[in-house]
Amino acid sequence: MYAWPKSEERLNRYARLLQGESLTVHVYYWGAVKGLIENAVHKHSFFEVCYVAGGTGVYEEGDNAYPLREGVLFCSRPNIYHQIRDVDQLDLLFVAFELDEKLSKPDEFEYYNQALNSGPIWTEKQQYSPTVHIWHALLFPDGEGLAAPISLINQLAHALILTFPTLVGGKNSTAETLLPASNAAMLISRAKLYIRDNLGANLSLSEVARYINVSERHLSRLFSQSIHESFSMLVRYERIRAAEQLLSQTIMPIKSIAERCGFSSVHYFTRTFAEAKGIPPAAFRQASRRNIEQE
User: Fold this and answer.
1) Are residue 13 and residue 100 in the same domain, yes or no?
2) Angle, nearest 10°, between helix axes 281-294 and 266-277?
């Protein structure tokens, strides 16, 4: 009924920055995947709303498990560990996004975030809801059907995201502009977001590849061709970057920083940080504080 890969590529190319009268939305990625495989426990720093178009599975968040079947719509909230498991021919539509606070009206921004953060995260029997009708309108038909004009994609995508609080939040609340991006760049972007948000986990190339639904070999090739560095180099860079922020902006013990950033020991963290920055973590923290005092 729909050309899934083409639909996903089209949305990721033309529906990224969604600007409206009261809310502006940054979309990190769209997904339209047939036969999704299960993923590891992970978290995001943004919202991800998913709709089950077919098949079955289980969405697990903390101690709660929610059944996945056609018609179910659910929301993964920021910084909450979750997982999709026990899948059987699971067809999933999803969008990952966050609101731009500076470009949105303060009351609408607060209202939307509060609604999605406080309402129910799972709802069923949404096959004929306005939300799902809009989502289907964004997809590219398989065969001779007509797709929505590119000029309307931003408006439809913006309208779709504004409906989410009525289903998985609790309330209600419009759009153009585009930000093109190649499919390879989008996959790299998703991989980077996953790495950044799960530094404390035992990250592996196979785990990240499985999460973004590509082969391990393909993801490795994307890293070397697109950003000219290996997966391990990127993970190391992100861990050092996160450690820098925690050292300069918090009083968190160095041992805790090492654990949060995914280093196996304080000794390994100290050695790796010193190699990358030319200064040990403790000395870096002291230097950062002196710089702040002098400003």
Assistant:
1) yes
2) 60
